[in-house]
Write a structure and sequence with these properties.
Length: about 240
């Protein structure tokens, strides 16, 4: 049996000063919280010392400006082939919509479920048939919700080859899933940059950085290997 293809780790090279600034903003507004002493159990059952909630960016205009500027620059530097920018309900919609406005291109969003009335569309905003669509995500963990959005867009006739997220855990299982779907994942801000910023800004020391890096490298056995139990459950 053939081994599944694992998508190569995407290149991450937006301007360093912008990357550092964005990482510091996310830490300051607590869009990224480290829970080494009190890990969280995700709905999937995975125990994590990190919680990401990029939805809070829309409440902080200075940080959000930096984000949108960074996303726009990232897209321009790679010359992505796209006609439309899309976001997945609900966390991806604010970022994708403002980014589309900034880039002066059409925007659509993808519902998590088909409506039970009206047009019963999952893709809202306009016709995506035969259009190249760039999907914007706030955060990628396993990649399943992102790829569900890709499937909905393709079912509506769109051509989707790339997904750009603000942050990503960059788990191997996510890279495998994207590769199987024929989609290239791109991440604006790597966790290496985030961890470096957290140490630089005094959120924790290098010892805790190593603990979190170990989790990112091999998340599922991490808790048992370190004798850790979750103290809270994701809502």
């Amino acid at each position: 049996m053939n081994e599944p293809k694992i998508a190569p780790k995407p290149a991450h090279n937006p301007a360093p000063i912008t990357t550092a600034m964005l990482a510091e903003h996310l830490l300051r507004i607590e869009a990224i919280i480290f829970l080494v002493e009190q890990p969280l159990r995700f709905k999937s059952g995975l125990i994590s010392p990190v919680y990401v909630d990029n939805r809070s960016l829309i409440y902080h205009p200075q940080a959000w400006h930096v984000l949108i500027d960074s996303l726009s620059s990232y897209i321009a530097s790679r010359a992505f082939p796209f006609d439309i920018i899309a976001g997945v309900e609900t966390a991806g919609i604010p970022h994708s919509s403002v980014l589309a406005y900034r880039r002066n291109v059409p925007s659509v969003f993808v519902r998590k479920q088909t409506k039970t009335h009206g047009t019963r569309n999952r893709v809202e905003g306009g016709d995506v048939r035969d259009k190249r669509v760039l999907l914007i995500e706030d955060h990628i963990s396993t990649g399943l919700s992102s790829l569900d959005g890709v499937a909905a867009l393709r079912q509506a006739g769109a051509i989707v080859t790339d997904c750009l997220s603000i942050t990503s855990y960059n788990f191997a299982e996510a890279r495998e899933a994207f590769a199987e779907a024929g989609v290239t994942p791109h991440t604006l801000l790597t966790f290496d940059a985030i961890l470096d910023a957290a140490v630089r800004c005094g959120y924790f020391d290098n010892k805790k950085k190593t603990i979190i890096a170990d989790w990112l490298a091999d998340p599922w056995p991490w808790a048992e290997k370190n004798g850790i139990t979750a103290t809270a459950v994701e809502n």
